[in-house]
Each structure stands twice: as C-alpha cells, then as structure tokens.
Write a structure and sequence with these properties.
3 helical TM bundles of succinate and fumarate reductases, binds protoporphyrin IX containing FE, about 230 residues
Length: about 230
Amino acid sequence: MNRLAGLLNTSIGQKLVLAGSGLALIGFLLVHMLGNLTIFQGREVMNGYAHWLQGHPLLWLARGGLIGVFLIHTTLALRLAWANHRSRPIQYSHSRQNQETTILSRYIALTGLLVLAFVVYHLLHFTLGSVQPEHSRLVDANGLHDVYGMVVRSFEVPAVAVSYIVAMVVLGFHLFHGVRSLFQTFGLFHETYDGTIRTAGWVVVGLIVAGNASIPISVWLGLITV
Ligand code: HEM
C-alpha cells in the first residue's frame, strides 16, 4: 500500500494512472458512440436502448466509476501540466524526443480543456435538459423518453450541429495525441513502431470521431428525420 502511495507521488506513477484512466475513457467513448449509432436504426430502437440504460440497476455504479475516472484523469492532467510548466527552463533540451514531448503535452492540455468545456455543455444539453429544454421533455408513442426526437430536433439547429462537429474534431486531436502519449508512457514509443502506433491511434480515434460526427451530419443532410 505504501509502495503504491509512493508510486503515485512520482511523476511516472502519475503518468501511468493518467494513461490508464485515459484508456478507460476511450473505452467509454467507444461504447457511447456505438449506443449513439442506434439512431440509424430508428426511434424505437434508440429510445428502447436509452430506456434500458436509464433503468439498469448498475447505472449509478457505472456513472460513479465514470465520474471517478474522469476526475482522476483531469486532476492528474492539470497537475502534470502545471508541474511541466513550472519546470520548463530545466527540462528544455535539444533532443528531438524532448521537444516532441513538450509540443505533445501542450496540445493535449489545450484540447483537453476544450473537451472538458464540451462535456459540461453536453451534459447540460442532453442529460440535464437545460439547453433547448423544449426538446428534452418529448415522449414517444410508447410513453418512453424520446431521446431520438431530442437529438434530431437539436441537430436541426445548424449552430448546434456545427458546435458538435467542431467538438468531435477537437476531441479527435485530443485522443490522437493522447494515444501517442499513452504509448510513450507505457514505453511503447519507438522510431520503428511509430508508423504502426500512428495507424492504430488513427483507427480508434477515427471510429469515435466519424461515428459521432456522422449523426449531426446525417440530420443536416436530411438522412435522419423526426
Ligand atoms: C454526436 C455525438 C454525441 C451524441 C449524439 C451524444 C448523445 C448523448 C445523449 C442522447 C445522452 C443522454 C442519454 C440519456 O439521457 O438517455 C448523452 C449522455 C452523455 N454523453 Fe453523449 N453524445 C455524443 C458525444 C459525446 C462525447 C464526445 C462525450 C464525451 C467526451 C459524451 C459524453 C456523455 C456523457 C458523460 C453522458 C452522460 C451519461 C449518463 O447520463 O450517465 N457524449 N450523450
């Protein structure tokens, strides 16, 4: 226990926890994106899925875990970014890897803050119904919360659709750099494997970004309608 606490006080221990929590959040994003894609199967399937999720006995356990992982990830990221910023004059080096690491962590910190802002907006929008409240109280023919109608009507407003598409691009940058940094932290970063790492990162990130962005784009194109 003492050794674990000791490890968490070191910069590498914190980086490992940051990378591990980032990996768990990517897992959530993949599952959430797959759930969102039920919109292409129509109102009944999407609302049925949302209803099943909302009534699941383990919902609050999963939510608690998600909030915990999210808080650990953001707190450690901010702490490490601050520590990096303070020790910058000493850390500056002309080695290629150090320069790359500095640029990488700056990108991750900036895009991370933007993703955080998006998550707050998104929760106010679809979970708490404070943004566009007129769409959050809809009920379908089966008496279920009309999540399908809420999402489609929301994305019919061009500014909302554009804000989600932009947010997905920013999320894509964050995840892409995050995945590279994650490989670095786990010691898998190497000149020889760099191509493979980039490809693997792009595939996972591409799926999450394209899957989610396809929803506002399809509403916009009239492929999904109320
Ligand atoms: C176009 C993309 C997205 C769509 C259409 C979408 C849709 C939704 C909807 C409809 C809900 C509420 C579900 C319900 O109350 O039944 C929700 C909840 C949520 N979304 Fe998204 N989402 C998108 C992208 C994202 C992204 C990129 C993130 C994270 C960075 C995210 C994080 C969350 C979280 C944390 C919740 C709350 C889950 C809960 O209530 O337990 N979403 N989303």
